[in-house]
């Protein structure tokens, strides 16, 4: 008789509802082979040994780390509790490794990860737009930072905290006074207002098209004030706002269609670098060159628009947990990734001094 796999899961309430996890639980229960897997909601306010045993735990603990990093005491306690349990049960599969997922909370780390990856080397058709971390509001220092990193106008200013989606498009040097450091400044590239969201579930790759920022002409640099926007407003499905409506002179019929081989190269490389299986990656295609620009990576995305997502996720979890190997699990960083939580926050984002040292 097949042993029932007990799969624990932890998400914030918001993530739980966004994923429609209750429907996923019902789907698993209704499957003819439902006896293969039991889903158990993990309550970190209680000892985990009372809720186990677990064959695997699926999570997005980054949401809890953010609260802990802000000094929220209960979140710190819960992370410590989780750490201790995982140390005492290293055979449990963690989807995904905590240390690796935590890297994606900081945009400096995300940009560095993409820059250092093999996909951006040499004459690759894949790249990351020029970027820099700006740590000073002094105009002279700011200008020097941008010039040394070859960041050009217009540029997009992104908060260092990856969970923050309030951004700005800046067109001139004068406009830099409109934002407060620290932040990531990244050259804007024209891409005909089309964003491709890549979704990874183990070996499976899916992608959907979403609206994005419209093109900006060189003349925009002298006639446009700083534009503040929220990425959700611009790129949500069926969004129609002035920022994602192409100007008539920029509209064209010969839009570049994405090549799945290039998308696969992107996801395979980033997945291998991070040692993660549940990822979201944002890609745009540069109008003039047809090159693929990787502009964001995040852990356990919403997977909206993915056909048969529940089946894909269920099959993936069962496949992983049935082929679990304790030694390979340790290599993914389960033990090392959970250190440093005792008595304090996980500190997902660098503090200001650490960041200055890292980019200097």
Automatic annotation (TrEMBL):
Region forming the signal peptide: none
Amino acids binding 1D-myo-inositol 1,3,4-trisphosphate: 15, 60, 165, 197, 298, 302
Catalytic activity: 1D-myo-inositol 3,4,6-trisphosphate + ATP = 1D-myo-inositol 1,3,4,6-tetrakisphosphate + ADP + H(+); 1D-myo-inositol 1,3,4-trisphosphate + ATP = 1D-myo-inositol 1,3,4,6-tetrakisphosphate + ADP + H(+); 1D-myo-inositol 1,3,4-trisphosphate + 1D-myo-inositol 1,3,4,5,6-pentakisphosphate = 1D-myo-inositol 3,4,5,6-tetrakisphosphate + 1D-myo-inositol 1,3,4,5-tetrakisphosphate; 1D-myo-inositol 1,3,4-trisphosphate + ATP = 1D-myo-inositol 1,3,4,5-tetrakisphosphate + ADP + H(+)
InterPro entries (alphabetical): ATP-grasp, Inositol_tetrakis-P_1-kinase, InsP(3)kin_ATP-grasp, ITPK1_N
Gene Ontology biological process terms in this record: inositol trisphosphate metabolic process
Sequence ranges assigned to domain ATP-grasp in this UniProt record: 118-335
UniProt GO molecular function: ATP binding; inositol-1,3,4-trisphosphate 5-kinase activity; inositol-1,3,4-trisphosphate 6-kinase activity; inositol-3,4,5,6-tetrakisphosphate 1-kinase activity; inositol-3,4,6-trisphosphate 1-kinase activity; isomerase activity; magnesium ion binding
Cofactor(s), by name: Mg(2+)
Chain residues that bind ATP: 107, 158, 186-197, 212
EC numbers, comma separated: 2.7.1.134
GO CC, one annotated term: cytoplasm
Binding site for Mg(2+) 1: 282, 296
Key words, A-Z: ATP-binding, Isomerase, Kinase, Magnesium, Metal-binding, Nucleotide-binding, Transferase
Keyword Signal belongs to the record: no
Family: Belongs to the ITPK1 family.
Assembly with partners or alone: Monomer.
Name this polypeptide is given: Inositol-tetrakisphosphate 1-kinase
Originating organism: Lingula anatina (Brachiopod)
